């Protein structure tokens, strides 16, 4: 039996229970043998994972859902898949949660959010419905989940399709602010421009449209996906994914960017962000999209990203699965700048530690040999200098190369010689600016994914990588300066 190579629409939309058990077994066996499976990231048991959904804290546990198509590594009939955790690093698999089984979501349960409400968790999501001509309508829907993870969908949509917007109308984020509930929605207007809509409610069921959120004067492309507002350190951060935004408005190389704007406040009276900043990329790497953040009851703003992009094929596809979620990041604003750090709970994964130290020189220093690919590397270089850190290295010319020049304040991530190549149309190098002076890196490596936190979270660069078997050393070379740090092996998720 073979996995499917060319997917038809019929196959993508076949209800899950209609798939033959032999196919499902073969798919799961193939996934389990994949050498790209990670050890401490959330990944789908089979098929495709995309956006994080419903990230929340309810009934004493963290809840995280994701967009799932379990039958293959393609975008098909979507559901929400559910996981819970007590420590943000070990995630218990609860299984499929919201599935496309009602008249308002028959062709897919799309992205959305969650908010504790009385003793339940309120889930807001988009339901897709296709007619016989495959025309789509998008409904914003609600459901209530209880402490046993039992979900009851509301009978009536929260928000109906609107004539002012096309069928690209989705991804509700519900939050509470100043004693009201608000809902942000990604939309495309009839002029095919991307917008964010704001709705208000006092009961989570009846929603009033306030209008288009004012946060920029610029054209944001043809569609905005996954709008997401969080409140931190007396400011607000609006995260979103503007599709088709012009490259003069934002410097980006991925097919679609995941961006943010910082504002002094959210002003519901005139439906705007006060004093919005310039638009910025959330991640400097290759593979982050659809990040979802929420204000947790412990005061933190926590975020998870889809590590993957729309419309791009990855080497794991042929093993029957695609994509993963990022580790959980904590967002703060410090000196008007968005900072993203790994949550402190990530330390729970640390096992053995080794210390590294030395002087940068043209001669290559081997920081580690024959590494198993699940570790954390913390490295500080104490002065302005230039150099290159190579992960998954075979020699100094092959591996994932992180070139830095802290005299000029630039860095690049290059995956050209790091194993299998993919997404070539969008280039193999990402260049970005960093602080001048000393450099601090905290890097999480997990088999086929690398998350790089730069200068204590001022930048993050996330990248998939599909290394060759020989790519397993960590090398460092450079001009001069003292380096020091640690490498911890990390345990698997329990
Ligand atoms: C973003 C997105 C969302 C949509 C979901 C469908 O990646 O396209 O806009 O709700 O994925 O899976």
Automatic annotation (TrEMBL):
<keyword id="KW-0963">Cytoplasm</keyword>
<dbReference type="InterPro" id="IPR023296">
    <property type="entry name" value="Glyco_hydro_beta-prop_sf"/>
</dbReference>
<comment type="pathway">
    <text>Glycan biosynthesis; sucrose metabolism.</text>
</comment>
<dbReference type="Pfam" id="PF00251">
    <property type="entry name" value="Glyco_hydro_32N"/>
</dbReference>
<keyword id="KW-0378">Hydrolase</keyword>
<dbReference type="InterPro" id="IPR051214">
    <property type="entry name" value="GH32_Enzymes"/>
</dbReference>
<keyword id="KW-0119">Carbohydrate metabolism</keyword>
<dbReference type="GO" id="GO:0004564">
    <property type="term" value="F:beta-fructofuranosidase activity"/>
</dbReference>
<protein>
    <recommendedName>
        <fullName>Sucrose-6-phosphate hydrolase</fullName>
        <ecNumber>3.2.1.26</ecNumber>
    </recommendedName>
</protein>
<dbReference type="GO" id="GO:0005737">
    <property type="term" value="C:cytoplasm"/>
</dbReference>
<dbReference type="Pfam" id="PF08244">
    <property type="entry name" value="Glyco_hydro_32C"/>
</dbReference>
<dbReference type="InterPro" id="IPR013320">
    <property type="entry name" value="ConA-like_dom_sf"/>
</dbReference>
<dbReference type="InterPro" id="IPR001362">
    <property type="entry name" value="Glyco_hydro_32"/>
</dbReference>
<dbReference type="InterPro" id="IPR018053">
    <property type="entry name" value="Glyco_hydro_32_AS"/>
</dbReference>
<dbReference type="GO" id="GO:0005985">
    <property type="term" value="P:sucrose metabolic process"/>
</dbReference>
<dbReference type="InterPro" id="IPR013148">
    <property type="entry name" value="Glyco_hydro_32_N"/>
</dbReference>
<dbReference type="InterPro" id="IPR013189">
    <property type="entry name" value="Glyco_hydro_32_C"/>
</dbReference>
<dbReference type="InterPro" id="IPR006232">
    <property type="entry name" value="Suc6P_hydrolase"/>
</dbReference>
<comment type="function">
    <text>Enables the bacterium to metabolize sucrose as a sole carbon source.</text>
</comment>
<comment type="similarity">
    <text>Belongs to the glycosyl hydrolase 32 family.</text>
</comment>
<keyword id="KW-0326">Glycosidase</keyword>
């Amino acid at each position: 039996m073979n996995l499917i190579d060319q997917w038809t629409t019929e196959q993508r939309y076949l209800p899950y229970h209609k798939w033959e058990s032999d196919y499902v077994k073969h798919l799961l066996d193939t996934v389990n043998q994949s050498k790209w499976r990670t050890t401490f990231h959330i990944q789908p048991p089979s098929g495709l994972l995309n956006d994080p959904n419903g990230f929340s804290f309810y009934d004493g546990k963290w809840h995280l859902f994701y967009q799932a198509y379990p039958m293959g590594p393609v975008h098909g009939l979507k559901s929400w898949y559910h996981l819970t955790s007590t420590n943000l690093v070990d995630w218990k698999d609860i299984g499929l949660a919201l599935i496309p089984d009602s008249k308002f979501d028959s062709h897919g349960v799309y992205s959305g959010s969650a908010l504790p409400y009385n003793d339940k968790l309120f889930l807001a999501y988009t339901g897709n419905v296709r007619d016989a001509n495959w025309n789509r309508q998008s409904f914003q829907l609600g459901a209530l989940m209880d402490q046993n993870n039992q979900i009851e969908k509301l009978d009536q949509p929260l928000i109906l399709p609107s004539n002012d917007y096309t069928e690209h109308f989705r991804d509700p984020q519900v939050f509470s602010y100043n004693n009201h509930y608000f809902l942000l929605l990604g939309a495309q207007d009839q002029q095919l421009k991307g917008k964010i809509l704001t709705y208000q409610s006092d009961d989570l069921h009846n929603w009033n449209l306030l209008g288009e959120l004012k946060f920029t004067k610029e054209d944001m492309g043809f569609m905005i996906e996954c709008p997401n507002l969080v409140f931190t350190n007396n400011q607000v951060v609006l995260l979103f994914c503007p599709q088709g935004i012009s490259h003069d408005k934002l410097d980006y190389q991925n097919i679609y960017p995941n961006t943010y704007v910082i504002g002094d406040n959210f002003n519901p009276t005139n439906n705007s962000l006060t004093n919005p900043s310039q638009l910025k990329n959330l991640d400097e790497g290759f593979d982050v999209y659809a990040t979802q953040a929420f204000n947790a009851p412990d005061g933190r703003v926590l975020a998870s990203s889809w590590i993957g992009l729309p419309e791009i094929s990855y080497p794991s596809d042929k093993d029957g699965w695609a994509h993963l979620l990022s580790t959980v990041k904590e967002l703060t604003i410090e000196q008007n700048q968005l900072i993203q750090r790994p949550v402190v709970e990530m330390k729970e994964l640390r096992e053995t530690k080794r210390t590294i130290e030395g002087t940068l020189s043209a001669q290559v220093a081997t920081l580690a040999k024959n590494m198993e690919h699940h570790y954390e590397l913390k490295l500080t270089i104490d002065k302005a200098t230039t150099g290159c850190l190579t992960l998954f290295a075979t020699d100094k010319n092959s591996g994932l190369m992180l070139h830095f020049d802290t005299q000029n304040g630039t860095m690049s991530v290059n995956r050209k010689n790091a194993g299998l190549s993919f997404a070539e149309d969008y280039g193999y190098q990402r260049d970005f600016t960093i602080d001048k002076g000393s450099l601090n890196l905290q890097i999480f490596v997990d088999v086929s994914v690398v998350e790089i936190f730069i200068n204590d979270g001022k930048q993050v660069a996330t990248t998939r990588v599909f290394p060759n078997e020989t790519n397993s050393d960590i090398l460092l070379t450079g001009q001069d300066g003292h380096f020091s740090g640690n490498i911890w092996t990390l345990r698997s998720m329990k």
